[in-house]
Structure formats: structure tokens, C-alpha cells
Amino acid sequence: MQELSSLNNLFKQYAKGILEKRDFEGLIFKIILKNSRYFYLFEGDEEETIDYLCWLYPRLSAAVTNYRETGASFSAYISALVRCSVREYLSRQTAHHITEYAAWTAQAADMEVHESEPEYPEKRPKPKVILNPRQVLILLLKSYYFVSDDFLDRIAPSIGVEKEKLKKMIDDLRDQRTQREEEIRILKERIHCQFYRCIAFEKRLNAVTPGSIYYEKMKGRLERGRLRLAAMRKRLAGMRLDATNKQIAEVLGISKGTVASGLFALRTRLKINEGAAAANAAQTAAELN
Predict the structure, then answer these.
(1) What Å distances lie between residue 185 and 111, 114, 126, 190, CA to CA?
(2) What is the DSSP letter of 72?
(3) 120's torsion region: left (phi>0), alpha (psi -120 to 50) or beta?
(4) DSSP summary character for residue 114
(5) Looking at residue 144, what DSSP letter applies?
(6) Which residues 6+ apart lie within 8 Å of 285 measured at CB?
């Protein structure tokens, strides 16, 4: 083509010093842009073509510097450079789109958060429950994350434990919670990365010929990736932030069974008292009627 053939004349002017390198590169860009159909450069999409040329600039600048007249003309040299770089650019764009799609898909679950409206229970007469100090202490440690210093001032004398000792127990449980929060954060990041890998493997699997060696290799990587993702999700589901009976037992220096039996006794007594309160309310309503 006439415009491409003119690249040889332009190079001769550049080699003689008539054209500055910057001006020479600008003219090359104009010729490539004008002959975009010849190079199959995103036909009908001028914006994409310009993006490609911006990406091409460092390679083109280096090619102009490294070109030597050793047989092939400068126009043929530039044509080969553009055609090869187009394939590389498209390959990079495809990988970028896969990565972007996978990253957004991995975060979609966290972005779609819907909080349900709070439910306000009907007013009921509060049952009177008399608890022993150890049960109260266990219940307090079970709810350690929501305990304030002011509440400790009021509750410590009732259960016969010094406030400083009680505060130390709660601080120990909070330190353990901080460690678990960090472990959960790291595990969630690993799950997002693994989820992205699985999506990327699946996209690449769909892009290759079924039955080929690369297809079978990618299929195996996808299966192993999904198994690993399922294992990490199962591990995350089992991680808790609230204090376990074992942790409370270690803080109090008692057995895990003692903590479990104390909490069971509390639940049983509270259910009994709630049932008695409901019966009393029903009886009162019947008498009023």
C-alpha cells in the first residue's frame, strides 16, 4: 500500500537526520491508524485502536532504535511488529477481562448484603430467676464482648469476684477473639483468591479444545481448585468469634463439662420460668374476661 511504502522514505529521512525521532514516530502512528483495516486493528472501533497504539508506543520506539537495514525493508519490519503485537495485546486483554470478571464475581456475595428488619417481641412479664454466682459468671464470660467497665463495677460484688480479676478474664477472651478475627480475615482473603482461580480455570477450560492435553490439564486443576475451595469454606464455617465452653473453662480453671452443665441449667430454668410467666398471664387474662 502506498502509505506503508512511504515508511521506507520516512526512515531514510530519519536516518539522514532530517526528521527527529519524535516526529518520525508520530508519522508512523498516523500511517498505522489510517491503515487499521490492513492490520486488522479493531475495525470500526477507533477508541480501541488508539488504546492499542498507546500500548504499542514503547515497543515501537524500541523497534525504531533497534532497526538495521539488513535485507527486510522498514515497512515490512513495522508491519511484522504490528501484526505480532496485536495478538499479544488481544491475549493480554482477554486475560485482563477474565481477571476482572473473576474479581467482581468473588466480591459479589459480600456486596449483596441485606439486613432484615428487627423484630420487636411482645411485652411479657419478666420471670424472676434466682441464679447462683458461678452460673452468672459463666454467662457473663459467654457474653464478654458486650460487657462494659460500668457493668463490671455493678456485677462484681454480686458474684463475689474482684473487678480486676474479672476484667483480666474478659481481656484474655478478647485477645483470643482478636486473634480469631485475624485468622478469619486471612482465610476470607484466601477464599476470594481461590474462588478467582477457579473462575479463571473454568474460563480457560471453555476457551480450549476439548480432549486436548491442555484441556485435560486445566480440567484437573479446576477440580483440585474446587475441592480446595470447598475445604476452606468448610473451615471458615466452623470458625467462631464467641467464646467456646473450652475457652471459658480455661479462663476459670474448671472443666469444660462444668461450664456446659452450668449453661444447660440456666437454659432449663429460664424456659421453666418463661412457661410459668406465660401461664400466669393467660390466667390473668381469663379472670379479667
Answers:
(1) 16, 21, 40, 9
(2) S
(3) beta
(4) -
(5) G
(6) none
Give the N- to C-terminal CA distance of the chain in Å, as an integer: 103
What residue spans of the chain are helical by DSSP H?
2-15, 21-34, 46-66, 74-111, 133-142, 149-159, 163-207, 213-237, 245-252, 256-288
pTM, to two decimals: 0.48
Which residue has 502512528 as its cell numbers?
29
Cell of 252: 476459670
Backbone angles phi, psi at 42, to 5 degrees: 50, 60
- Per residue in 217-244, pLDDT (tens digit) is 888 989 999 999 999 999 998 888 888 8
* Residues contacting residue 278 through CB under 8 Å, at least 6 positions apart: 124
- Give per-residue pLDDT as tens, 69-79: 766 787 888 77
The three cell numbers of residue 113 are: 448484603
